[in-house]
Every structure is written in C-alpha cells, then in structure tokens.
Write the structure tokens for this entry.
Amino acid sequence: MASLETGVVVAQETIIPGHFVLTLAAPGISRTGRPGQFVMIDVGAINKLPHPLADPFWRRAFGLYRVDPEAGRVDILYRAGGKGSRLLALAAPGDKLSVLGPLGNGFPLEEAEAPVALVGGGTGVPPLVFAGRVFASRGIPAKAYIGGRSANQLFGLDDFAACGVPVQVSTDDGSAGVRGVVTDILRPDLEALEVRTVFACGPTPMLRAVQGLVSQFKLPAYLSVEAYMACGRGLCLGCAVRLAGDGEPRYANACTDGPVFRSEEVVL
Amino acid sequence: MPDDVDLSVEVAGLRLKNPVLPASGTFGYGHEPGALFDVSRLGAVVVKGTTLRPRAGNPPPRIVETTAGMLNSIGLENPGVDAVVAEHLPLLARLGVPVIVNVAGDTVDEYVEVVRRLDRAAGLIPAGLGLELNISCPNVEAGGLEFGRDPALAARLLGMVRAVTGLPLIVKLSPHSPDVVAMGRAVQDAGADAISLVNTMVGMAIDIWRRRPVLGGITGGLSGPAIKPMAVAMVYELAQHVDVPLIGMGGIATWQDAVEFILAGASAVAVGSALFANPLAPLEIIDGLVDYCGAQKVSSVRELIGAALPRRGS
C-alpha cells in the first residue's frame, strides 16, 4: 500500500553525463518496494517550501533501482532531461523530498518461469537491474539484453555483472555490442529456447518490438509501460493504457493496474 | 491553533463542517485507499462525472503537464450510474460526510435519467446527497459544454432535472460561458440551489517533434494554478449578481488560494488537480483556514464569504 514518506537525500551522483543515482533514506519504501514498482517525488517541493512551486505541477515517477531494507535506503537512477528531473538533480544531501510509494504492481517474480530475459533500454534499465539482483540472490537464471543508441549512453551493465547476471548489449551505431536493436540480440536466444519468460522495460517502440517478437514465440512476457502520470494512485484516470480486445475500447490505469502488464493484454 | 473557529457552511442545503471539497474527477470515488488521508475530514466528497451508461473514456494520452497546470482529456470514464449507486455510494456512506455526485450526459434525457436514479438512492447517504450538474465538460463530443454555453439551453435542462428531484442541485459552469452572469441567473431562476465554477478551460499542447497534438482527444481541459486568476475573477463577478451560494474552484493549491475564492464570494472551495502532487492539500487548506480566521479575528469563515466584494449600493 502506497504511502507518503519524507525521503532524506543521502547522496546524489552522476553516473554518465546527465544521468544520476539518487540515494534516499526512506525506510518504509525500502522495506516494501519490489522490482517494477515506482515512486513519485514532488520535485516542486524540495524541503517543503512554504508555498509549493506550481511548476513543475506534477510529481515525477521513477522506477526503483535498488533498495536496502537494512539501511533503510532507496536508490533511483534517472536521466535529467525535463524540467522536473533537472530540478531533482539539484537536490543535495540532507534535502527532504516528499516520496509517494511504492506504487504499481511490479514484475511477477514468483510466477516467472526461468530462465528469464530482462530486456530494456535507457531509463527502463534500473527496474531490470533490481529484478536481476533478486533473481541472482535466489539462484534463478536470468540474462539481460540491453539496448542503447551508443556505447556512451549505456548504464547498469556493471550492476548485472556484479550480481552474476550475464548481459548482452546492442547499440544503434555498433559502438558497443551488436549493431542493431535489442530484439536483434534477444531473437537468437528465443530461437535456441534459452528463454522461458521475458520482462521488458523501456521506450514504447522497444516494447512494441518485444511484443511482436514474443507473440511469434508464444512466450509469456511482462512489459512495464510508460504513460504520462499525474496522481499515481488511480484517481485521475489519466495514465490510460488500451487493453487488447475487439469492440468498444477498454482501458486500464498504468499506475494501479500496471505499470507491468502481460504483453498480450495491452495495445501499445 | 485556535480551535474555536467555526468553518461550517451551508451550500445548497448541504451542511458542510468545513468549506473544503475535492473537485469532481480528481478524487475518484473518495473511498479508495489512494486518497491517503481520512476523507471524513473534508466538508463533502465530490464524485467523478457519472453518466447513464458506462463510458470507457478517451484514447491516450489523456493528460499532459503544462506550465503551472495540466491538460486532461479523460472523456468521462466512469462505470455508469447504476454501478455508482450499487458499488460506490454504500462505501461513501460510511465516511459520514455529504456526498455530491457530478452528473454528465449527452442529452437532456440522459441527465434526467441519471438524476432520477440518484434521487432514488438518496437514502443511502444520511449525511446528505447532492448533485452537481456538469454542463461544462470540454472533453465529450455531445452535450457537456454545449449546455454550458447557452443560458436558455441550460435553463431548460435544469427545469427538466428539477422536475424529477428535490435533492440539492449544483450547476457547474464553464469558463467559456459567453456571459457568466446571464448563465448564472438563468440556472438560478430555473431552480439551481448553488453554482460551482469554474470547470476546466479548453486548451491544447502540440508535440513539436511529432508535429501532432499531444492528447488523444486533441484538446483537453486546462486546470491548475495557471487558471486561478481567471477563476477568481469569474467568482467575483458572478457573486455580485446571484443569490445562490457559489463553490469556487480553478487552480486552488494552498489555503491562500482558497481564501481568495472565499473573499471573492465562494461559500465553499474545491481542490482539483493540485491534489495530484500534494495529496494532503485539502487538510493543509482546512488548517490554514482556521489559522487565517484566527489571525483575522473572525469566529466563523462565513464572515469572510464575499468580503472582498464591493459593498452593494455603494
């Protein structure tokens, strides 16, 4: 059950240009957060200003990257692209943030038949790192397939390696791994029957490609979808995701029904 | 904090222990765990737009953040009036506060039928059931805003609805009413017990890289602090020309915002999209109102309603 928690910034580090890891002391979320769940941070109210900023107007959603329940800490990894995340990048140790979470359903780790393919790109990678770490700790075979534009845009690879999850990489320009997209490196392993379940998180075009591929192989796959989100709590009905099926369109909420959906359930 | 301040107000015959409400469509059905606070502290709960039949809503993207606000094009997604009565009203009853159901439709007949069914369910809510007639939704093809632009049409709709219910009837006006005073007077004369204003303003955002509108519904309703001064002005204007109580809304995020609306003539206020970033905004506003009344040395918030209006006859 989601709750509001005051997270205190412990550290904030740049990992590659424009990408940050924010470590928060947030004991509640550190205990209950699962891979694929997310938090929403009120980036317009750092240190609870006496009058909230009206701009940015929404909280920002971030997938959980690491949790340490013993230390009571939560890490998120994000790209400072828009005005909200750039504001967050200014947060310094000791700053207090209003954190809402953990939100969403997360990946179904228990139901997934191994070996599991963790497929992603960009800021879709952190939740997959979290899932990979949990699988590794349980001795469940998993392999990561990470796509990016270029070698200098990749991150999270060391995390997989550190917990013993093998990683294969694709880049658009061939500067690292295989030249191509992530489904190009996933396909051979599906053909070789080395994957029983797919978890994917990344940009919508990538998820669509994964969706197409897994349907050919009739593999169970779980996709963490992206949507503009205002409340994160199922109240605004803004983050609608079209559900598969004929006739009158039907929608689910990415925030409370997702963000992880079975691949065949949703139309992206 | 002074605890002898009286925040209670009466709106459309509903007794509210304080003047702070959630705005329709921003708070679900009020009983969900997502509310994150004790909802019985609110003056009333306002339920999202309810139509005769279930509606799936508009294609995504349905929302986008804009400068100091947001656009929405939800398209009145709701399970239909029968499900609201069967599933939600019994849970809302437990909260012990008045409930206001926002009613929407494409046709006069649809509004009338929804109201008729809610009227029959009034006994479910002992604290009082009110209806907010939404004639200002910018996100549906038919009905909605059409009624909100034409005082004669709105008055006719209201007359038909009034004929089937004695429940408190609030009419929610659009900021696009060409003449808010004419509209307000028309619905007052046709039997409205209160008027709420403003609904969202029609707005649009374009994705410059795709060269297409961002929203699936092309245009959406603009809400948030960006529209607050416009909303305050409309409340201030209408308050001078109608006698029914007003519920003010449009960009309220803080107690200071709420005070502005009250001073402009609102008997109650609704917090809408500000709830998304700050789930506790309504409670902070209630606490802030108590402190403000104390600082202003007024024992009741009612003394502040319309206090910024020009004195009549002067």
About this structure: Chain A touches chain B at residues 1-4, 42, 44-45, 51-52, 54-59, 98, 100, 227-242, 248-251, 256 (CB under 8 Å). Chain A has a mean pLDDT of 95.
